[in-house]
Structure formats: C-alpha cells, structure tokens
UniProtKB/TrEMBL annotation:
Protein name: LRRCT domain-containing protein
One cellular component (GO) term of this entry: plasma membrane
Keywords from the named record: Leucine-rich repeat, Repeat, Signal
SMART domains, A to Z: LRR_TYP, LRRCT
InterPro entries in the cross-refs: Cys-rich_flank_reg_C (IPR000483), Leu-rich_rpt (IPR001611), Leu-rich_rpt_typical-subtyp (IPR003591), LRR_dom_sf (IPR032675), LRR_TM_domain-containing (IPR050541)
Biased composition (Pro residues): 208-230
Length: 452
C-alpha cells in the first residue's frame, strides 16, 4: 500500500539523515543518538511508526497491545502516541529519557494508577491525554513535574471524588489552568456522580464522609467497588482513530459506520467520516463536538438530515456532503452554522422542485459561503441545470410575474429584485406597526441590514 511505502521512505530518510549528521560531526542531536540507533529503528519498524511532520518528530505506537513502555525509544521524540494499549500503571521515571516530549497521548488504556514521579523529566510537555482510562484517583504530585502543561484531558475516568482527589481538584480550579481537566466528572460517591471536577466545592472533599452503611462489606483500599464502566460499542473514540497533533482529528473513514458514533470528544477540531454507510443524520448527532471546524461526510449514503442534526456546530467552517443521496434540505437544517465558509454538495441527486428552495434561499442570504456541486438531477426537464438557474426560472414563471410577460434574463433580475424589495417592505411594515415587543423589533432591524 502507498502509505507503507511512504513510511519506509521516511524511515530510510531518518536513518540516512542520522548517519549524515554523524558523519558531518553532527551537533548535539547526532551525539546523543550515537550507536544503537540502527537497532532502535529496526525494532521500531516492528512495533511503532516513526515519522516527521512539519519538522516535529512523532512516534505512533497506537493499538500495539503494549503493557509497559520498553526502554530505548528515540530520545528526540516530540509526540508520543500510545492510545489504545493496555498500560495499567505509570511508574516513576517511565518517560524520563524522552526529554523532548511535547505531547503524550495515553488515552484508552487501562491506567488505574500514576506514580508521583511518572512524568519526571518532561519539562517540555504541553499536552497530556489521559481520558478513557480507569483512574479513580490522582494527586497533583505527578503534574508538578510538568511546568509547561497547557492541555490535560481527564474525562471518561471513574473519578472518586473524595479527600484523595483534593489536591488535583484544587490544581484544576486555578484560573490560569483553564484547559486542564475540563469535562472530567465524578463517578463516586453517589451524591456527586456527574459533577464536574472543575466545579466541585473543593473544601467539601475532605470533610467527614456520610456514615457508611454498617452492613456493607469493607472495601479494600485501592479497589473499585464497581468495575470500571464498560465503553459503549458505538463510542466515537473506540471506533475511530484520534490524533492530537497538528490538530485534534477524529479519523473515522471507511469503518462501515451506519450512524454517527456517540460521544465525540469535545476537543475534536476535524472529523473525517467519509466513505461509510451513514444514511441519516439524527438530531444533535454532533452536540458534543463544540469545537468542530471541519466535518467530512463525503461518500456515505445520506438521504436525510434532521433539522437539528447540526445543532451545536457553532464554529463549523467546512462541511463536505459530496457523493451522497441527498435530494433536498429540510427547512432549518443550516440555521445553526453561523461561521460556515465552504459547503461541498456535488454528487448528490438534487431534485429541482419546491423542496430545494430553502437551500437556495439560505445560500443567497449567506454570500460568504462558497458552495459547489449544486446541480439538478431530477426532474429530467432540468437535468444538469445549476439549481440556482432552476430557481430563477421558477420565480420568473410564477403567476404574479407571468402577467407582466415572458421569461428573459432582464425579467429574472427584476423578479429577484422585487422579491427582495417585498421582503424588505413586509419587514418594515411589521416594524412600523410597532406592536412587536422591542427585542423582536431589534431582530427585524438586524435582518434588514443583512439583506441590503
Ligand atoms: C473528504 O473526504 C474525501 C474522501 O476521503 C476527500 O476526497 C475530500 O477532499 C474530503 N473533504 C474535505 C473537505 O476534506
Ligand atoms: C462515492 O461513494 C461510493 C461509495 O458510497 C464510492 O464507491 C465512490 O468511489 C465515491 N465516489 C467518489 C467520486 O468519491
């Protein structure tokens, strides 16, 4: 496959590059590597993928069934991807030789314990992903080794919100730590379940716990009374590959998905779901994906999109719906997309009748949205017409205009102008009546400005 060839070429380049630097007397990095490098690369070729992107060094060890971190990984690694392995305990000094690390992705492991010195030496680390593990407790101690930490993901762990979590909660709540531990919630005790760590009243954590049930057997220290929550089978992070850098990306291409998976992580910026078998988008399918900027749904079997399907996608800029089975958009589908810039619509059997008017109307009123591929495929009469041309003809043909005369271009323009003028007039009339409550009147004024 092409991908593997590229990989091999990259590895060869790396080896040659390393040799080159050594031969040329090298500089610091060359010296650090020294002997043993060729062996490391060979071993890596079996286990992990090493590559350079935008000048940064990545080591991709996702899905390798790893239960521990073997020694000897390249010391110049800047981004280490360890998602979906079987790590259970992060021991003191585990990453001590990886001093260049800037991001460390440990999500979707079985981690239940992090020793205090686990992250020792990681002076440069700015992103640490620990979501979807089995952590019940964590003190702030391991994090004190990370002076540059800016992003910390802790959600989807069964946090026990008790006195042992006190120092972590206080750290997360420091105002300058805005991006640390967002969305993490308590699993226990019962009365705090679902509460966000960021919002807990830290002072209460170390107060005496409510009297325990005298009949309950004592829980041995360090053991969860409940087994860790089992992940839902349609959970996005278990179905798709997550990449943190250069931008948080969820790669769900070609996974034979029938529906948009649940629980899209809230920090995802780009989501690629092209080449699946999704037939419909349901209400609030993307409600958790608040930061999403690019959404690719190309080459599915989409026939219908619920009016509320895109609810919450406030920052979406690019939406690719090409190569689907869409014939029209229901009224309202696009109203949530305030910042959309590009909309790809090609390769759909758009039906040129009244049902298509909403889409054209919306595009007309959002001239900042570049769209492509909007071509009639039905009825036969309008086959291969740009949909906008069909709508113009429709306007020219409609009864009130027909009495004026034929259907030439000049008239189309007049008709269009007249439409706009009428909308404006209707809105100003309402305004003039002066019976609307003032907030509504304000909104009307705003719409008039947008139209002109
Ligand atoms: C969406 O995915 C398809 C197929 O993988 C690709 O050709 C297209 O360029 C992508 N669109 C965007 C906006 O990235
Ligand atoms: C359109 O999607 C089908 C599968 O749904 C795929 O086989 C085909 O290659 C896609 N075409 C393009 C131009 O992407």
């Amino acid at each position: 496959m092409g991908f593997f060839r590229v990989l091999v070429v990259l590895l060869v380049l790396l080896v040659v590059g390393g040799a080159e630097r050594r031969r040329g007397g090298g500089g610091r990095r060359g010296l650090v590597r020294g002997r043993g490098r060729a062996g490391a690369v060979k071993r890596l070729a079996e286990e992990c993928k090493q590559y350079v992107e935008a000048g940064e060094t990545y080591l991709d060890c996702q899905d390798r069934g790893l239960t521990s971190i073997p020694p000897g990984w390249p010391e110049d690694t800047q981004h280490l991807l360890l998602a979906r392995n079987r790590l259970q305990v992060l021991r003191d000094g585990t990453f001590a030789h990886l001093k260049q690390l800037r991001s460390l992705d440990l999500q979707q492991n079985w981690i239940s314990r992090v020793e205090d010195g686990a992250f020792a030496g990681l002076d440069q680390l700015h992103s640490l992903l620990l979501q979807n593990n089995r952590l019940r407790s964590l003190s702030e101690e391991p994090l004190t080794a990370l002076p540059r930490l800016r992003y910390l993901r802790l959600y989807s762990n069964p946090w026990a919100c008790d006195c042992q979590l006190d120092s972590l909660v206080r750290t997360l709540q420091v105002p300058s730590n805005r991006q640390l531990g967002n969305f993490a919630k308590c699993e226990e005790p019962e009365q705090l379940r679902g509460h966000k760590l960021k919002k807990l009243k830290a002072d209460l954590l170390c107060e005496a716990p409510p009297p325990a049930d005298p009949n309950a057997p004592p829980t041995p220290p360090g053991h969860a009374p409940h087994p860790p929550a089992i992940r839902k089978p349609q959970d996005a992070t278990s179905l798709c590959h997550t990449y943190l850098v250069p931008r948080p990306l969820l790669d769900c291409t070609s996974r034979d998905l029938k529906y948009v998976p649940a629980d899209i992580p809230p920090d995802i910026v780009k989501m690629d779901m092209s080449t699946n078998s999704i037939q419909r988008l349901r209400p609030r399918d993307f409600a958790t994906a608040k930061d999403l900027k690019t959404l690719n749904l190309s080459s599915n079997s989409l026939e219908s999109i619920d009016t509320a399907a895109f609810a919450g996608l406030l920052y979406l800029r690019e939406l690719d719906l090409s190569n689907n089975s869409l014939q029209f958009f229901q009224y309202g589908v696009l109203e949530d997309l305030y910042f959309l810039k590009r909309l790809s619509l090609g390769g759909n059997p758009w039906r040129c009748d009244y049902s298509i008017h909403y889409l054209v109307y919306w595009l007309k009123h959002h001239p900042g949205v570049a769209h492509s591929g909007l071509v009639c495929s039905e009825p036969q009469e309008y086959l291969d017409w740009p949909v906008e041309d069909y709508v113009k003809t429709y306007n020219a043909d409609c009864p009130k205009d027909r009495q004026v005369g034929g259907g030439n271009a000049e008239l189309d323009k007049d008709a269009a102008n007249q439409d706009t003028a009428q909308e404006l007039k209707a809105e100003t009339d309402e305004e003039a009546v002066g019976v609307l409550p003032s907030p509504l009147r304000m909104r009307k004024t705003f719409e008039i400005i947008r139209l002109s």
